[in-house]
Amino acid sequence: MQKVLGANRANAQAVGSLTVQAISPQAMDSAIEEMEALLRERHRILPGLEDDFTIRNLTEVFQAQETSAQVMSILLGAIASVSLIVGGIGIMNIMLVSVTERTREIGLRQAVGAKTGDILMQFLVEAVTLSLLGGIVGIAVGLAASVLISHFAKWSTAVSPLSILLAFLFSALVGVFFGYYPARKAAYMDPIEALRYE
């Protein structure tokens, strides 16, 4: 206090902070009012003047921490959704290129009796497989990162099996959603035009 305030302003008898516990959560508000009244009386603060002390309630601190945690969760969710959209667009582009390159194969399959549903299912399975492989790689990288973080940074990390399952299901859904358009394009090709394609 002498270093911060100076020797002439510092009071060696001064109390920097007090920690007070209420007898129950219901008594918190009345305890704060009593503390405020007692401190104002002891500090001889006249009515209408501002307090020269601050009373902090830890529940407010916890609420602020919860709010910031919720904001972080929303931000992480937004980043994850953008990543899923970008990955899905990548899968769609790869599948559209695959459909274009295999146009003659699709026409040949239709010519020998493949139904629209068969071709649709073939390309959907390919898109889902591609997406699931990406999901498996992502899960493996995430697990490895959590192990490395807990080893080197000494932070405790926990990966729940439910989050792994959700990641796997989301990658499959991304494959179905973004693979449907290329699969439909392949399934509804005109077999004659497809066989003529060079």
Q: Which terms would index this structure?
A:
198 residues; single chain; rod-shaped; mainly alpha
Can you describe this structure?
The protein is mainly α and about 200 residues long. It folds into two domains: about 1-40, no CATH class; about 70-195, no CATH class. The chain has seven helices and no strands. It has helices at about 1-5, 30-40, 60-100, 105-110, 115-150, 160-185, 190-195. Helix 3 (about 60-100) crosses helix 5 (about 115-150) and helix 5 (about 115-150) runs antiparallel to helix 6 (about 160-185). The longest helix has about 45 residues, at about 60-100. The chain is rod-shaped and about 100 Å long.
Topology, please?
Layout: H1 2-5, H2 28-42, H3 58-101, H4 103-111, H5 116-152, H6 161-187, H7 191-196
Helix pairs in contact: 3-5, 3-6, 5-6
